[in-house]
Amino acid sequence: MNITLEQPAHAGAIEALLDTSFGPKRNKKTVYRLRRNVAPIADLSFVAIDTDAAGQEQVVASIRYWPILLGGTTPALLLGPIAVAEAWRSQGLGGRLIRHSLARAAELGHAIVILVGDAPYYVRFGFSREKTLALALPGPVDPARFLGLELVPGALDGVTGMVGRVSRSKAGRTPHPGQQTPPLAHPLPATAGVTADAVAAITPLAVHEDGRPADLDAAAPSGGGRRRLRRAAR
Ligand SMILES: CC(C)(COP(=O)(O)OP(=O)(O)OC[C@H]1O[C@@H](n2cnc3c(N)ncnc32)[C@H](O)[C@@H]1OP(=O)(O)O)[C@@H](O)C(=O)NCCC(=O)NCCS
């Protein structure tokens, strides 16, 4: 099992995983308005790949982030969607993907992460409703699911207003923090603007010397889980 950056060849498998996890109407959700015509941030889009005994690879989890603007001016990240294939859930894979990508985001200089999701799951990563009280989303959501995290302490202080989409033309002209970046260094340095505390709070995955994220054998499912997945993939 490897966690690695998403490649164009993974797109079909990711769409299938998201359809299974969220249902075909997922595109109607308010957060999808913020993603329309905007590409996910390549440096923060990770997949978990399982390789079976025959050497066949399968995408078993995916996480993506999108560039957004808070109050029209403050850049931030929108986390999601994240999905783990059913046979692989509750084995720590989702948590590893989130911690790994948040650590990478902090290293790349991102300061704020917003999401719409289940608070009981995301509080363990430091997300809270308190951080988004001065913000609004461009459509209906359950307020209890509107959560924020500061990768740089205080980054959300005084930030108010609507969460907005980064227009395609603007996204093209102005690279979002982290869109043109060096390879992941490990162990993570406490880079300028990111406190050691913020980095320490996020446990990164180990990575190989060439920058590939490390092996995740501990999260492998049982033989039955693998067989179910292979059957489902046929
Ligand atoms: C949410 C999801 C990504 C978690 O992935 P995962 O690999 O199972 O997560 P982890 O193994 O790191 O954590 C599992 C723990 O989180 C809990 N958990 C999972 N989803 C949860 C949720 N929506 N709300 C509260 N707790 C949740 C599990 O009960 C488990 O608890 P335990 O450790 O006490 O047994 C995965 O369940 C999934 O893909 N779900 C369908 C899509 C989805 O809902 N995505 C997130 C949108 S909010």
Describe the secondary structure blueprint for this structure:
Layout: E1 2-5, H1 11-22, H2 30-35, E2 46-51, E3 57-70, E4 74-84, H3 93-107, E5 112-116, H4 119-122, E6 135-136, E7 146-150, E8 161-165, H5 168-173, H6 196-200, H7 223-233
Parallel strand pairs: 4-5, 6-8
Antiparallel strand pairs: 1-2, 2-3, 3-4, 3-8, 5-7
This protein binds coenzyme A (COA).
Question: What would your notes on this structure say?
Answer:
This protein has a single domain (2-233), classed as 3-Layer(aba) Sandwich (Aminopeptidase), CATH 3.40.630. Strands 1, 2, 3, 4, 5, 6, 7 and 8 form an eight-stranded mixed beta sheet that branches. It is 25% helix and 22% strand. Helix 3 links the parallel strand 4 and strand 5. It contains seven helices and eight strands. The chain has 234 residues and is α+β, with helices and mostly antiparallel strands. The chain is globular. It has helices at residues 11-22, 30-35, 93-107, 119-122, 168-173, 196-200, 223-233; strands at 2-5, 46-51, 57-70, 74-84, 112-116, 135-136, 146-150, 161-165. Residues 21-22, 82-84, 89-95, 117-118, 120-121 line the site of coenzyme A.
